[in-house]
Amino acid sequence: MSEKYKEAAAKDSALYFNGIDDFDTDHIFDCGQCFRWERNEDGSYDGIAADKVATVSYEKDTHTLCIRGASEDDRGFWETYFDLGRDYDAIKRDLAEDPVMAGAIRRGSGIRILQQDKWEALVSFIISQNNNIPRIKGCIENLSRSLGEHVCTRGEREYFALPEPEVLAEASLEDLAPVRLGYRAKYLIETGKMVAEEGRESLEKLADPALSHEEVLEALRRYPGVGPKVANCIALFGLGRLDSFPLDVWMKRVMAKLYGFSEKDVKGMAAFAAEKFGPYGGLAQQYLFYYITHFPELFQD
Q1: Contacts of 114 by beta carbon, 8 Å cutoff, 6+ apart
Q2: Phi and psi angles of residue 256, each rounded to the nearest 5 degrees, phi first
Q3: Cα distance between residue 95 and residue 115, in whole Å
Q4: Tens digit of pLDDT for each residue in 19-48?
Q5: Catalytic annotation, residues
Q6: What are the pLDDT digits (tens) for 251-286?
Q7: How many Å apart are CA 197 and CA 166, to the nearest integer?
Q8: pTM for this model (two decimals)
Q9: Cβ atoms of residues 283 and 113 within 8 Å
Q10: d(C-alpha 122, C-alpha 118), whole Å
Q11: In the predicted structure, residue 2 carries a pLDDT above the cut 70
Q12: Domains of the chain
């Protein structure tokens, strides 16, 4: 175990955030934005974010967020990760002026956009293309176990970090065969080579708010396997671009059902979202995605 993981393995403390509103762990961890968290029977979630392993729970009566396995030194990390500094109530009031969106918000009101590690977001959403969430989770877990470094063991579960870009850059298709990535394996290797050569700071630079949305998407599409939908996902969940509006099969379906678009009119949907939802398109997307994936009975003909 490397030095940077020894501290994580030793932690058995808890960190509390009081007075947290607009927060629901089920909404946050089950809306397609992250893949390394698993729900426990008591409603808490075990998972790993970057190199930090924790159990996250939220007490609705007291509006208290508890992160077990974290210490006071981690407070800044988790504040950022859960986007606790943003006024989600104000955003929801703004978006809910649209009655269609208001219905979606009521059913996913506790969603927050996680501020995920940029390399993790890049890898995760390359894997996500043409894939379902259970299989995405399995691929990421297998990739971490195969090539990532062991972080710690908590209870009966072992946690592994995602492999660094340099590790993927040196991997072969045979190395990745057990992960069962299919055609995505080649994309990950080539992307690893690019990030290893350019440095992780090349991803950090893409979070510069001075860059336009189009500039960010164009830069992300340089990476093998990154098309428009994947680029928007990485921009939203890894770079904090709340103006991103990823359009997958579910989103095309919900936009057709609720806003009358043809499912083939991707450009029309994107233009509509940019105009109607503006800087909060990414949050609107998450409300709509949660709405159709968790309440499909409301969308039956």
Answers
A1: 28, 33, 34, 49, 81, 82, 83, 237
A2: -70, -45
A3: 21
A4: 999 999 999 999 999 999 999 999 999 999
A5: 229
A6: 999 999 999 999 999 999 999 999 999 999 999 999
A7: 8
A8: 0.93
A9: yes
A10: 6
A11: no
A12: 3-85 (3.30.310.260), 88-109+240-301 (no CATH), 118-224 (1.10.340.30)
